[in-house]
Write a structure and sequence with these properties.
Blueprint: E1 2-4, E2 7-9, H1 12-67, E3 74-75, E4 87-96, E5 102-106, E6 110-114, E7 119-127, E8 133-142, E9 150-154, E10 161-163, E11 168-177, E12 192-201, H2 205-209, H3 211-214
Parallel strand pairs: 3-9, 4-12
Antiparallel strand pairs: 1-2, 4-6, 5-7, 7-11, 8-10, 8-12, 9-11
């Protein structure tokens, strides 16, 4: 700097350097604000996606129950008031996950049922191991487009059951096929329906309950 008496003047280069430093410092402030804003937005998006992931399962399950998507059947509390002459053949399928030491079968291979007619059938399960087995069943129907018309009044699905060693149990299923199916032209070609159950060994209430969405069943 050049100083004259009590007055001190900054050298032009020093002043320019200082001005440049201030400009850089001032310019950094908006960048920092933008960085914080961007971080906040990304955090909000991440939290939102996490929330949606938890909501996805129940929302998807509800969608399936309402629409019958994926062969998801309906739950009825009362029998229909009309029975039509049109018949369909309902076949019964039984499957067991390899981890479950159970023998599982349908007592009847199939039944012929009128639309609106209530029918009771039985499945049979046997514990073929030497220890108690906790298991849970899931199910669906095919063709999938008929899921909205297949109604259950009584069912053993999605209820954890304990089967003692060597014990055989017959379990009832009460159902009907809604008369509304006759109003759906897309179902005019349907002559047969298959009701399929699969038993899984229960590893815990939450773990097995999640099989509902995995198998597109109710």
């Amino acid at each position: 700097m050049d100083c004259a008496g009590a007055v001190c003047l900054r050298h032009p280069r020093v002043r320019a350097d200082d001005d440049q430093a201030w400009r850089e410092r001032d310019g950094a402030r908006p960048v920092n604000k933008r960085a914080k804003l961007t971080t906040g937005i990304l955090t909000a998006v991440a939290v939102g996606m996490l929330g949606l992931s938890f909501a996805a399962e129940p929302l998807y399950s509800t969608f399936c129950r309402i629409t019958g998507f994926g062969g998801t059947t309906q739950v009825a509390v009362e029998r229909p008031k009309e029975v039509l002459d049109r018949q369909v053949r309902v076949a019964f399928d039984a499957n067991v996950d390899p981890a479950a030491p159970l023998k599982f079968k349908a007592v009847q291979a199939h039944v012929d049922v009128k639309l609106g007619e209530t029918m009771m059938v039985f499945y049979e399960v046997t514990n073929i191991s030497s220890e108690p087995v906790k298991a849970m069943a899931t199910f669906n129907v095919v063709p999938h487009k008929i899921g909205r018309y297949f109604n259950k009044i009584q069912c053993f699905c999605f209820v954890e059951q304990t089967y003692e060693p060597g014990v055989t149990v017959q379990i009832p299923v009460v159902f009907f096929v809604s008369p509304d199916m006759a109003k759906d032209w897309q179902a005019d070609d349907v002559k047969g329906i298959t009701l399929s159950y699969t038993y899984y060994r229960a590893a815990g209430p939450q773990a097995d309950a999640r099989r509902e969405d995995a198998s597109l069943t109710y």
